[in-house]
């Protein structure tokens, strides 16, 4: 049975320093199996932009796991991650009075 992890605040500091590096390690060591990850944040990005921005942030914060490369990261994102913009301050729905 496939499982899905929904990661709220996926572009935030905790994700950059701890969660995303840990998920990368779990993926590379085969421990995520068929799990998919839906990464939610307020930035109006697509999955490729998310991957690029988070790699840059992890490099800047020295949180890339030792021995892991950008290629490892991109493989992980391509196989496991779907980024979705979740901005609750903007609504396309019309208010009903």
Automatic annotation (TrEMBL):
Entry superkingdom: Bacteria
GO molecular function: NADP binding; oxidoreductase activity, acting on CH-OH group of donors
Transmembrane residue ranges: none
Domain Glucose-6-phosphate dehydrogenase NAD-binding: 6-89
GO biological process: glucose metabolic process
SUPFAM superfamilies to which the protein is assigned, alphabetical: NAD(P)-binding Rossmann-fold domains
Record's protein name: Glucose-6-phosphate dehydrogenase NAD-binding domain-containing protein
Organism: Planktothricoides sp. SpSt-374
Native organism taxonomy: Bacteria, Bacillati, Cyanobacteriota, Cyanophyceae, Oscillatoriophycideae
């Amino acid at each position: 049975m496939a499982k899905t992890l929904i990661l709220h605040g996926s572009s935030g500091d905790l994700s950059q320093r701890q969660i995303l590096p840990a998920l990368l390690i779990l993926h590379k060591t085969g421990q995520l199996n068929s799990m998919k990850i839906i990464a939610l944040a307020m930035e109006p990005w697509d999955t490729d932009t998310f991957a690029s921005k988070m790699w840059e942030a992890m490099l800047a914060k020295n949180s890339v796991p030792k021995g892991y490369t950008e290629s490892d990261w991109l493989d992980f994102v391509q196989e496991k991650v779907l980024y979705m913009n979740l901005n609750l301050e903007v609504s396309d729905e019309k208010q009903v009075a």
